[in-house]
């Protein structure tokens, strides 16, 4: 995790937010460790959580993301579009919906952007 050391002096608050989210979802730490990457900018890291709480997604290089459901992480192509703002866990957060044909599927989930 060289990128954490490189960005620590410049983006302390953002790194703290990333650490809090990764404590909630420990599988994200393993995914980040396993991926070979150079210095990653902290503001490119995105985390989305399904509103029903059944799925969480970590995006290090959009549109690729790693989503976990029932403890199993898999790589997916996550294409979301902004829907609205909503209060989630005491903060105003963005709510996103799938883009394209997935938006019309009955099982389409809404995702809250945590980071």
Number of strands: 7
Structural class: alpha+beta
Output the number of helix runs: 3
User: If you compute it from the alpha carbons, what radius of gyration comes out, rounded to the nearest whole angstrom?
Assistant: 14 Å
Briefly say what this structure is:
The protein is 23% helix and 38% strand. With 115 residues, the chain is an alpha+beta fold.
Structure, explained:
By secondary structure, the protein is an alpha+beta fold. The chain has one domain (2-113). The chain contains 3 helices and 7 strands, in the order H-H-H-E-E-E-E-E-E-E. The protein has helices spanning 2-7, 12-24, 27-34, and strands at residues 46-50, 55-61, 64-69, 72-77, 80-88, 91-98, 111-113. A 7-stranded antiparallel β-sheet has the order 4-3-2-1-7-6-5, with helices on one face. Strand 5 (80-88) and strand 6 form a beta hairpin. The radius of gyration is 14 Å and the shape is globular. The two termini are 18 Å apart. 15% of the residues are buried.
């Amino acid at each position: 995790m060289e990128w954490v050391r490189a960005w620590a002096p410049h983006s302390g608050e953002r790194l703290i937010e990333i650490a809090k989210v990764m404590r909630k979802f420990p599988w994200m730490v393993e995914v980040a460790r396993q991926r070979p990457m150079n210095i990653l900018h902290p503001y490119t890291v995105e985390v989305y959580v399904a509103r029903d709480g059944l799925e969480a997604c970590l995006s290090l290089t959009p549109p690729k993301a790693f989503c976990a459901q029932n403890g199993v992480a898999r790589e997916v192509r996550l294409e979301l579009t902004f829907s609205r703002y909503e209060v989630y866990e005491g903060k105003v957060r963005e709510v996103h919906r799938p883009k394209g044909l997935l938006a019309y599927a009955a099982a389409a989930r809404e995702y809250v952007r945590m980071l």
